[in-house]
Amino acid sequence: MEPRDLSAHVAYQAGRGVEEVARELGTVHAYPKAAATDLRERLAEEWGVTPAQMWLGNGADGALDYLARAMLRPGDHVLVPAPGFSYYEMSVRYHHGVVDEYPVHKSEEFAQGPGTVRSAYDGHRIVYLTSPHNPTGSEIPLSDVETIAEETDEETLVLVDEAYGEYTDRPSAVGLLADREDVAVLRTFSKAYGLAGARIGYAIVPEAWADAYARVNTPFAASELACRAGLAALDDRAHVER
User: Fold this and answer.
1) Which pTM does this prediction carry?
2) Runs of H (alpha helix) within the chain
């Protein structure tokens, strides 16, 4: 496997979602309750899960915070890839957790496979995986995600960050949620959909603990404009496929 060439950077571009923001400017006086409900239902339909399993956040960062809030007690340890997305570490520390790292190496094609995780794992509360990985572009086969979940403790959450999921043909780890209660998936509208400034992201969680969202979320964190932009973006397949 050769990691993808990331040297030719192309800026993220918004599709119809940004047009929806312009149309909805007159609704900013309203709290986004209806829009958030509509978006959660639309995403649930997209992924074949229930709306309660969709945890909307103020960007993927917000969804990461919700998961940390739901899972971590002060002093709990988590395991993150190095190099990796810096907000994993920030979010954990905001919630009084302790961050440990598992290094990914060029000599091993930047793999985040079971062996790499196993070598650093010691009962961590959350194991963070990134597929495709930023900044290397390496990917994790779904079978490896499942193996990692099998080999870690029952109380460990395997969190798969698929912020760049639209850039790969590999199946999403969402497919594991029907049979597992220890895997969650992170997605965002910031990359392929080009809505980074709108700040809209989400986690997809197992049905068994979906109701925890009501206890950990910040009301109205996802704005009316962001939710409406997300709804429009989901219908703009041509933009994503381009």
Assistant:
1) 0.87
2) 16-23, 33-47, 59-71, 86-94, 114-120, 142-151, 213-216, 224-234, 237-241
C-alpha distances in Å from residue 145, one per residue of 26, 175, 233: 44, 11, 28
Fold of 49-219: Aspartate Aminotransferase; domain 2 (3.40.640)
3-class secondary-structure state, position 204 = strand
The domain ranges of the chain are 49-219
**Euclidean distance between CA atoms 154 and 18, whole angstroms:** 42
pLDDT, one tens digit per residue, over 123-177 is 999 999 999 998 899 999 999 999 999 999 999 999 999 999 999 999 999 999 9
> Is pLDDT of 19 > 80?
no
Distance between CA atoms of residues 178 and 53, nearest Å: 11
